[in-house]
């Protein structure tokens, strides 16, 4: 997933405050046991809940996964009704989908793509073969499904096509070229030049949901706050959501599909699961982990809580309150990164990036860079934590290039960088040990004179010494795309309890308990939203 816009620190904190101040969970139904709760067909005991509304399917979250689920209900449910609840005020959801690049991972070779997807699990085989098989089966159908909903062929373009929209940008390939077979992975994306504003898959599905208003009811500013669970069978009977300050209990005759995204905007969860401080999400202002709490309360098992697409260094204002709107990191070719101790801590170079392997000729066990936040370390690719505060250090020539990453002409005047005529003067301004920063810069310059970075083996493309005053320092914070953790699901989209049994009538789709457990290929998240949106809707309706 490659994000295209960002959030402010103000909205980041405000969104979190709302979530943490809202009671979420399940109706208090002590003694629920899941021993015989493998389906939702049991006679239900009385929960004592008076239902105000009734639908066949309730979908929580109106991002890409939620819209794919609702549209599947609307088009394949033979008149089944669907309530699509959204916490934010946007019909496109308050999570990551609308801000993503909209890339959809697909394939035309089931066997090879299945082998590749299994290889992406690495040593973390928490995701079963059956789940991988379900994902790849649906991945083969993405284009046909979009066509069946009314999208003509020229509404979207394949990154595989060298003569298509992306000619001159990059061909979409598998990111992990060292894994075989990888040539089976392709990507499609809606053309940004499409007429009628249908420039992203989420806009297309939103328009389709509007066409199905006779069976799909959409509500924004309507956060779900608890699941309603039968105390005997453990089956989910419905959801309580807020309409203003009023709680509304809605019965879900067939089931509930949770499409709530991750917990990117919940600092407490981020600290607990990642020990990540001072980090900033690319989007997902409303992704505060509410659905995770709700599902925990009804006995759901969690998985992949460690999973994250991050971290990158990202420019933040000197006072730590403002962020640039451009989501790319400061290009390492323009300078170096140091921590608050004045020392380098990373090779800095984004050599492998966003569905596009730019250094395929090199041995990737020796290549520095990142793949959606995974960095090569010791010959393996893994998540790397970054300091809460770090500094991009540039000389005049490097900063001249780096200013392309700022949305204003003078980053110093706007409070996003310091400048000084000497490295010593710069160190004093950013409050790092003077002797350490001067030694770091001197070491960097000397290494370049002697053939390259022997400290972190940074790639040599674009590197330059830091010698030309004035010198600059731009503050950085850890930045990330999305979390992957949440309730564990099976190949049918069912959410599982701690005994690995399905919680009856409860399903999920998208990044809410994502299937990505180790390595992640670009387009896989949007592909997962569509795949499990359809899978969960069909199984919830009993038509799979």
From TrEMBL:
Keywords from the UniProt entry: FAD, Flavoprotein, Oxidoreductase
Key word Transcription present: no
Coiled coil segments of this chain: none
GO molecular function terms listed in the Swiss-Prot or TrEMBL record: steroid dehydrogenase activity, acting on the CH-CH group of donors
Family matches, as Pfam families: FAD_binding_2 (PF00890)
Cofactor: FAD
Protein name: FAD-binding dehydrogenase
Transmembrane segments: none
FAD-dependent oxidoreductase 2 FAD-binding domain segment(s): 56-526
UniProt record, GO biological process: steroid metabolic process
Organism: Adlercreutzia hattorii
């Amino acid at each position: 997933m490659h994000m295209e816009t960002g959030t402010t620190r103000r909205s980041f904190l405000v969104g979190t405050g709302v979530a943490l101040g809202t009671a979420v969970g399940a109706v208090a139904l002590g003694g629920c046991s899941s021993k015989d709760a493998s389906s939702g067909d049991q006679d239900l005991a009385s929960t004592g809940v008076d239902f105000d509304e009734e639908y066949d399917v309730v979908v929580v979250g109106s991002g890409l996964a939620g819209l794919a689920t609702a549209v599947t209900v609307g088009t394949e449910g033979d008149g089944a009704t669907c309530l699509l609840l959204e916490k934010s005020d946007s019909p496109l959801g308050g999570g990551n989908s609308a801000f993503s690049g909209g890339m959809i991972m697909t394939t035309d070779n089931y066997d090879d793509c299945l082998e590749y997807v299994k290889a992406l699990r690495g040593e973390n085989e928490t995701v079963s073969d059956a789940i991988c098989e379900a994902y790849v089966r649906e991945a083969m159908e993405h284009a046909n499904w979009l066509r069946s909903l009314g999208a003509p062929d020229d509404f979207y373009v394949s990154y595989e096509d060298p003569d298509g929209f992306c000619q001159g940008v990059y061909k979409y390939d598998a990111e992990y070229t060292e894994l075989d077979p990888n040539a089976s992975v392709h990507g499609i994306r809606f053309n940004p030049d499409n007429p009628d504003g249908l420039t992203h898959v989420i806009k297309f599905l939103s328009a389709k949901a509007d066409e199905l208003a006779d069976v799909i009811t959409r509500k924004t500013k309507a956060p779900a706050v608890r699941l309603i669970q039968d105390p005997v069978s453990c089956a989910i009977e419905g959801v309580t959501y807020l309409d203003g300050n009023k709680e509304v209990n809605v019965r879900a005759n067939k089931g509930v599909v949770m499409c709530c995204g991750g917990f990117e905007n919940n600092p407490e969860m981020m600290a607990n699961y990642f020990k990540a401080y001072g980090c900033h999400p690319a989007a997902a202002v409303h992704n505060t982990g509410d659905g995770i709490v709700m599902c925990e309360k009804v006995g759901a098992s969690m998985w992949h809580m460690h999973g994250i697409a991050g971290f990158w260094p990202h420019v933040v204002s000197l006072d730590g309150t403002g962020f640039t709107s451009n989501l790319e990191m400061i290009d390492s070719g323009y300078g170096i990164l140091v921590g608050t101790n004045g020392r380098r801590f990373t090779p800095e170079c984004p050599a492998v990036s966003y569905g596009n392997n730019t250094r395929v000729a090199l041995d990737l066990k020796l290549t520095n860079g990142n793949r959606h936040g995974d960095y090569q370390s010791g010959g393996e690719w893994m998540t790397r934590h970054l300091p809460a505060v770090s500094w991009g250090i540039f000389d005049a020539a490097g900063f001249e290039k780096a200013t392309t990453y700022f949305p204003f002409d003078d980053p110093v005047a706007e409070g996003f960088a310091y400048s000084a005529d000497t490295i010593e003067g710069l160190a004093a301004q950013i409050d790092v040990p003077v002797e350490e920063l001067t030694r770091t810069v001197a070491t960097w310059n000397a290494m370049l004179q002697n053939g390259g970075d022997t400290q972190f083996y940074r790639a040599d493309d674009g590197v330059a010494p830091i010698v030309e005053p004035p010198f600059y320092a731009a503050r950085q914070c850890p930045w990330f795309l999305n979390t992957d953790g949440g309730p564990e699901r099976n190949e049918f989209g069912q959410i599982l309890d701690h005994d690995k049994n399905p919680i009856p009538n409860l399903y999920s789709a998208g990044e809410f308990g994502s299937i990505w457990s180790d390595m992640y290929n670009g387009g896989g998240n949007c592909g997962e939203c569509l795949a499990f949106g359809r899978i969960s809707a069909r199984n919830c309706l009993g038509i799979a």
